[in-house]
Amino acid sequence: MKRLCAILACCALLVGLAALPAAAKPRQITKAKPETTDILFILDESGSMFGLSSDTIGGYNSFIEKQKKEPGEARLTTVLFNSTYRVLGSQVDLKRVPLLTSREYSPTSTTALYDAVGRAVSDLKKSLQEEGRASEKVIVLIVTDGQENSSVEFRLSQVQKLIADCRKSGWEFVYMGANVESAKEASSIGISRKNAMDFAPSANGLQNVFDSAQEAVKNFRSTGDVGKWQQYDDSKPVKP
Fold it and tell me: pLDDT tens digits for 167-208?
């Protein structure tokens, strides 16, 4: 009897195994479309930006609204920095990016620029590598109104190497600064001098900054190069 039960059990097992579907092949990770552009916006929120906070918010929002109208797909990562570091959104579909308000942007404290650039670029680079997109289209925008003065995590040499490595992979970097020699500051961290722009710490100056950022990203999204991107016009009134 026990032998009969064992035989029946074996038969049932064989029937069950035969009914199982063939083992599925491992799924391939779906890559983002080649035309997708990743935009990394690193925006100074230190105390010296306090008097320009409303103009900064308005300029940033204008940049977002204009970029939403551009053809093609893009994702945005926005980082605010002072002595600390905050990510407003990481690789968010540009069409879904919310507008900035004074609740999110409230300037205070010092300028840990190296920490902000080092951490933001490292995090995005790692994320893209995990997607298999390390050599795809990435543009990094840096807006600051002062020099580095309080970083504790990243040294200059580390930032230089990080930017150099990313540029070899096709990343583009743009540096816009007030109260500094932007070409010199950009060059010091490994950004091309032609991708640097000075701006006046004023309403018109910030309008120039965000108009220039818009032009650089628009050009990069369509051609892979920032082209002629600097926009200077202090003669006309600030747009309402």
Answer: 999 999 999 999 999 999 999 999 999 999 999 999 999 999
Q: Give residues with Cβ within 8 angstroms of 141, minimum separation 6.
A: 39, 40, 41, 42, 174, 176, 213, 216, 217
Strand partners, 137: 37
Domain limits for position 93:
42-223
CATH number at residue 110: 3.40.50.410
Tell me the C-alpha to C-alpha distance, in Å, between residue 68 and each of 41, 49, 81. 15, 26, 24
Q: Give the Cα separation of 46 and 107 in Å (integer).
A: 5
pLDDT digits (tens, 9 = 90+) for 116-141: 999 999 999 999 999 887 667 999 99
Looking at the domain assignment, is residue 48 inside a domain?
yes
Residue 211 lies in a domain: yes
Residues 38 and 78: their CA atoms lie apart, in Å, by: 11
CB-CB contact of 177 with 199 (8 Å): yes
CA distance 22 to 28: 18
Neighbouring C-alpha atoms within 13 Å toward the C-beta of 222: 11
Distance in angstroms (rounded) separating the CA atoms of residues 195 and 201: 19
